[in-house]
Amino acid sequence: MGETVRVAGHLQDYRALGGVAFALLRDRSGLVQVTLKKGVTPPALFELLEGVPRESVLRVDGTVAANPRARVGAEVLPDRIEVLSRAEVPLPLGVVDKVHADLDTRFNHRVLDLRKPEVQALVGLRAALLDGFRETFRELGFVEVETPKILRQGAEGGATMFPVDYFGTRAYLAQSPQLYKQMLMATDLEQVFEIGPAFRAEPSDTQRHLTEFTSIDAEMAYLEGPEDLWRMVERLVSGSLRVARRRLQEEGSPLAGSVPEPSPPFPRVPFSQAAELLGRVPGSDSFEADFQTEDEKRLGEILPARFGNDFYFLTEFPTAIKRGTFYAMRQDDHPDRTNYFDLDFRGQEMLSGGQREHRLPILEAQIREAGLSPESFGAYLEAFRYGMPPHGGFALGLDRLAARIAGIANIREVRLFPRDRYRLEP
Ligand code: AMO
Fold first, then answer.
1. Which domains does the chain have, with CATH numbers?
2. Closest CA to 13 of 80, 74, 91
3. Span 123-149, pLDDT tens digits
């Protein structure tokens, strides 16, 4: 109190009530009230503020005074106010209005939308999750890597590849770091992780598919079996969420309490058991069909009630579903099943992974079986020729996790500038 201060921010609101006027300035730390009083404040400042549109950027020099009626129990009595940047009128999107704006309008004017405290909280949630994963990966002995995003070939199926003209040759944007993180298993890095963009030309227009998303990838060598991966996923997910939750608590985020505290072990539910719980008939054609959104939702009702955990693994995916995933290891004694799994949270797939096929002849055969030619995977396959340890890994979709935690149905809302089939701007 009594100190001279300089504050700056967006002018959220201005109200003049006869002898006194209030300007509310907003920045990341919150709101501060600047109070102008007739007889105390230089008259020119009343005139100046009268004509300044909301959301303009102001800088105020003044004195702090106690005021129990102001939001923070104090206000700034201004000596000088400068308009650093004047907002145009009208605003295409209100920042604090209670008027509902549809998603398209919000994304078209995303910079204004991002000023809303509830949208800022989502940005904070992502940042805290990223911190959580990085810190936990390092604790678990993983090295952070960055693999190329412009590739000669894809790994996750031809339908979702984005072609790029690369100086006259055809290249593709990376659908995932899959082939590179596996190649690194033939080096002595042993345990790597990557947090980066993944690009998929998703033809479907759903609430959980983006054409650009953030993939949190991990790969580890000297695997004995999928159990090693499940245990690692449990430690990673529970550790990362713990760090994120703590960080958000420290920051006073309204979303801190929404970050779950998972309790490992997560139930391991074989695909066939889940299919039966969905009422599928063993032996029927549809028994081994991949789970669709509706199936995942229903499993999200059945499995947590049965096993008492919001997180659960769906394991041993049928080979029939994973045939396109040529790098997936099939079980030696049950070749119709793979060592592949998903981790679902509240009725939605968050993560998928599995043990890879590290035996070159089998891998080549699986590439052929997927309708691809081993010749086009030269550099990838070379990594298997000179000593490749058994390995496996997984990838988690950050956007899906953040949206699920925040209770948001459409994952576009947790990205700063989302990309989908219809949106390339801003
Ligand atoms: P998969 O294709 O299942 O596996 O992707 C892994 C995780 O990424 C998220 N995800 C998406 N999120 C938003 N929009 C999309 N279009 C989208 N596609 C996928 C999901 C999913 O669980 N290479 C394997 C992983 C591995 O085996 O290591 C892969 O990419 O949360």
1. 4-85 (2.40.50.140), 117-414 (3.30.930.10)
2. 91
3. 999 999 999 999 999 999 999 999 999
